[in-house]
Amino acid sequence: MRTRIIAFAIVITVTLTAAPGFAHHSDVAYDQTKRTTLKDAKVISYAWRNPHGIMVLDVKDETGEVVRWTLETGSPSSLMTDGWTKNSVVAGDVITVDANPARNGTKFGRLLRVAKADGTVLTWGERNRASQ
Amino acid sequence: MTTIAYLRAVIAFSLIATPALAQRPQQQQASAATKNAGPAPRRDISGHWVGPVSPRKEPPPPMTALGQQVFDATKPLQGPRAVPIAQTNDPLVTCNPEGFPRSALFETRGFAFEHVPRRTLQLLQYQRVWREIWTDGRSLPTNVGAPDKNARDPRYYGYSVGRWADDYTFVVTTTGFNEDAWADERGYPRSMDAKVEERYRRIDHDHLELSVTIDDPKMYTKPYFVMKQVYTWAPVQEFEEQLCIPSEALEYRETFRPAGTGK
After folding, report:
1. Within a 10 A sphere around the Cβ of A115, how many other Cβ atoms?
2. pLDDT digit string (tens) for B151-209?
3. Which of A121, B22, B86, B205 has the greatest count of CB atoms below 10 A from its CB?
4. pLDDT tens profile B3-46
5. Is A29 within 8 Å of B259 when comparing Cβ atoms?
6. What pTM was computed for the model?
7. Is the ipTM of this complex over 0.85?
8. How far is CA B159 from CA B26, B98, B99, B107, B143, in A?
9. CB contact, 8 Å: B105 with chain A?
10. Hey, which residues does B232 pair with through a beta bridge?
């Protein structure tokens, strides 16, 4: 019973902390209960800009077909707070990305984490979520 | 401890823990840097302050029929009625002016005050906008939007006057609003004649508490105490460049439109 109650408290905390303070725009298009990993994704372009960055990736699916994904990232100011620079991710990089996928099944998502080939890991807002 | 008491305790912990966990990293940094803040200077809130994108809001009182009608027509990107970007009518989505009091309730990552003769200037990091808060004893205009030729025009940021309630509390009253802007990011309304009070209480050198109340009988059945939020002295006394750029905002909306249109 206590385990369930603690889980309930965690859910409340997560729900209440998720809303304020984090994003400028709505997250409702993305399923925050799901985390999609895009392995060995090739960065086609990354626009480092307001209100949110736009990262376009090509990823091979399980059949080997290349699928294009478009992810939104934080604004430059919020990413810099998380240790990013304008050149952290550039076209041509091959990276592994975690993202909340679009609820409607389209190949869109909200970026959570990037792992680069050199071992560097970059996140957007993960410290907030990790606290939850 | 009984199960009910235990449940109460964990819920209380959740509620207490929430604001701290919701802080942005730069705010956490600022908090850590200001643990041993010195005393508040007298009659001085000048300097750069940092806070969250969107401070936590209190629920509003019941709205009037007009208030409810205006509220129902809004499709915000934030709050419990949030819609995907393709469906919103939030004026900010195309970089229209944020207006006041929204500028005190949303995108509050950075702002500054400067006290100058006859007025206090508030400098807002978001969109690099400034507000003039007159401290020369003048009254607020009473004829904003009236048809006579001497009437003042409604403004996105209204007309503001300020006074010191005591040596550490600066009170700003603002009215005369352009009704195109929303009161906050959730789509709550405010009319041209609303009176909005900001109370800035300097707790110590590094902490500034802001309380915001909207008194708008046209839209709400009683004054709406919207929020109380503590801002921290910015470790770097300098603004980031945080602009809403129309061409980029439109590209963002069009790029991500398919993600929010259902399937």
Report:
1. 16
2. 999 999 999 999 999 999 999 999 999 999 999 999 999 999 999 999 999 999 999 99
3. B22
4. 455 445 444 434 333 333 333 444 444 554 556 789 999 999 99
5. yes
6. 0.80
7. no
8. 32, 15, 11, 21, 12
9. no
10. B50, B207
pLDDT band of A2, cuts 50, 70, 90: low
Please report, for residues A103, B12, B13, B189, B245, the alpha-carbon distance to residue B108 in angstroms, rounded to integers and kept in the order given. Answer: 29, 27, 26, 19, 18
- A vs B: CB pairs below 8 A: 132
Q: Report the DSSP beta bridge partners of residue B113.
A: B47, B122
CB of A46 less than 8 A from some CB of B: no
User: How far is the C-alpha of B213 from the C-alpha of B101, rounded, in Å?
Assistant: 9
Return the half-sphere exposure (C-beta side, CA atoms, 13 A cut-off) of residue B67.
22
Note whether A5 contacts B: Cβ–Cβ < 8 A.
Answer: yes
Instruction: Reduce the DSSP state of residue A8 to 3 states and report it.
Output: helix
The closest of A22, A78, B90 to A30, measured between CA atoms, is: A22
Torsions phi, psi for A60 (to 5 deg) = -85, 130
pLDDT digits 0-9 by tens, A30-88? 999 999 999 999 999 999 988 889 999 999 998 999 999 999 998 888 898 889 999 99
How, if at all, do strands A66-72 and A108-116 pair?
A: parallel
The Cα–Cα gap between A48 and A20 comes to 24
User: Is residue A26 within 8 angstroms of chain B, CB to CB?
Assistant: yes
Predicted confidence at residue A81, as pLDDT, reads: 82
Distance CA B69, CA B83 (A): 18
Question: How far is A123 from A132, CA to CA, in rounded Å?
Answer: 15
Please tell me the distance from the alpha carbon of residue B233 to that of residue B205, in angstroms, as a whole number: 8
Return the structure tokens found at B102: 């929204």
One-letter amino acid for residue B227 of the chain: M
- Running DSSP on this structure, what letter comes out for residue B139? P
